[in-house]
Amino acid sequence: IRNLVAVLGDQLDLNSAAFDDFSKEDDVVWMVEVKDEATHVWTHKVRIAMFLAAMRHFRDDLLAREYRVDYRQLDDPGCQGDFASELGVAVRKHRPEKIVLVEPGEWRVRELFQETAKELDVDLDMRPDRHFFATHEMFEEHASGRKQLRQEYFYREMRREFDILMKDGEPLGGKWNFDSENRKSFSKEGPEERPNPKRFSPDATTKEVLELVEKRFTDHPGKLEHFDWPVTPKQAKQALDDFIEHRLPEFGTYQDALWTDEPYLYHSRLSAAMNLKLLDPRDVVDAAEKAYHTKQAPLNAVEGFIRQVLGWREYVRGVYWKFMPKYLERNSLKAKASLPKFYWTADTEMNCLQQCIGQTLDYGYAHHIQRLMVTGLFALLLGVDPKAVHEWYLAVYLDAVEWVELPNTLGMSQFADGGIMASKPYVATGKYIKRMSNYCDGCRYDPEKATGEDACPFTTLYWDFLMRHEKFLSDNQRMGLQLKNIERKSEQERREIKSQAKRIKSHLSANA
Ligand code: FAD
Ligand code: SF4
């Protein structure tokens, strides 16, 4: 054949560069369900199922269009379990002139394809990933000559470049950022109406995948019984429409709020659909902008949402490719504790963690503030090795792919990159969680207390964190106010906090 067109599980887009010159006569699409990708970190069943279900639907769509497809299922006899061996099998079988591949989203996989093609002595035609607004060159240009990178400035450039929410060269509404309007929590009664997102019942193809995952990955974390994610471009579009109509109007206001037994609130649930390329971010941004112009949603919601997709999502990709592979090794706070065992079981008396981890195991989903200010915050305060935290996040979320997960985890949430993603560590006491949620109402601990039998471990570890890193953080002007507060603590208080923190750490390290 002429081209072996390799399509990876997060490249499910017929409009991608891989298909630019596709010939039904001369080319073959090659797709493979690789066991290694589900086991190199101990992956959640929902994440494995999401990838396999979306891949099989994509394959069926290609076949319906009469493309030639060489698809290897995980349960096919002789399926080798890793990319390199499977690529070898395909090359020997089809004898292609070259392998065509859109640049993989993960550094490790990109290297692997380059090396394997060389070993097999076949040309590799690696094409750019057009899914994103920004090219690598655009990010490089943005980063060049800057001492410090900040999402905010990159986001403004993107708004200008793509003329999104702009009028006469100025941001709509007269400012770039409506964050100050987007930090509300709910009243005591919680969200007024329960925003139920559209759910997608598994069809025969997805059911087959769910059975396979249950059988082959029995001991992996998570449950499959709630699986209701969009697994085709058509469903992803329906999920987008549903979000724009029912949840976008409140998205901004309650963006940071948390509530017991409410995993989704006003969030879009679109990350996995976008990351697997079932949904184009341009369509997502367009739909949100249109909702503003048709007065379906207010500006604080629309801007807040577009900032996530056009700003953060593109920015983290830029950071990933600019700093990999060394980024993975960063550990600026020299954290080395083990991840507590309850991250895999939700078995903890800390109600906020029990809720967020429990929900993660049930659905493979948690929204941003749950990831950043509950599970991420606790690991940061405890001083867990950032690589272990990274592996957990890569394993347990259905939307996890390394280019987006790693900078968020290692950088934004653990401050292990020393300040590329965040200008200061996101640290807070349990009082922040109390303000933004009702988790503390059902908890045996008291977020106000740092010492004593009912002290909140977040609050104890927060003060301990600041004392531990006082010297390192004192160079950071933005930490000034927080550091000033420890100066007010007496020697006695400091000693008590330190010894309580030590007890928490030794208890948790015995349960790592
Ligand atoms: P919404 O809240 O509705 O946001 C809309 C969209 O904006 C999302 O679908 C997503 O595509 C994008 N977005 C929002 N925040 C971010 C962000 N910080 N970085 C990049 N894109 C963003 N997102 C992933 O897609 N995959 C991951 O593996 C992942 N790991 C994370 C790990 C940590 C520690 C943290 C703090 C965040 C992580 N995020 C990750 C970002 C964010 O939490 C998720 O994108 C979001 O919660 C997905 O839910 P949603 O689609 O309902 O998002
Ligand atoms: Fe979490 Fe502390 Fe609140 Fe309990 S008291 S829910 S541990 S923040």
Radius of gyration from the CA trace?
24 Å
CATH class of the largest domain, please?
Mainly Alpha
For the sheet with most strands, the description reads: 5 strands, parallel
CATH architecture of the largest domain: Orthogonal Bundle
Give the tally of β-strands: 7
Q: How many domains? A: 3
Order of helices and strands: EEHHEHEHEHHEEHHHHHHHHHHHHHHH
How many DSSP helices? 21
Q: Note poorly predicted spans.
A: none
Q: Which compounds are bound in this model?
A: flavin-adenine dinucleotide, iron/sulfur cluster
Strand order of the largest sheet: 3-2-1-4-5
Fraction of residues in helix:
40-55%
Structural class: mainly alpha
**Which percent range describes the beta-strand content?**
5-15%
- CATH-assigned fold name of the largest domain: DNA Cyclobutane Dipyrimidine Photolyase, subunit A, domain 3
Tell me the span between the first and last alpha carbons: 52 Å
| Nearest-integer average pLDDT | 96
List the helices and strands and how they pair.
Elements: E1 3-6, E2 28-32, H1 35-39, H2 45-64, E3 69-72, H3 83-94, E4 98-102, H4 107-120, E5 123-127, H5 136-143, H6 151-161, E6 166-167, E7 170-171, H7 204-216, H8 233-246, H9 248-251, H10 271-275, H11 281-293, H12 299-323, H13 351-363, H14 368-382, H15 386-396, H16 402-413, H17 430-436, H18 457-468, H19 470-473, H20 480-487, H21 491-509
Parallel strand pairs: 1-2, 1-4, 2-3, 4-5
Antiparallel strand pairs: 6-7
The site of flavin-adenine dinucleotide (FAD) has 27 residues, from helix 10, helix 12, helix 14 and helix 16.
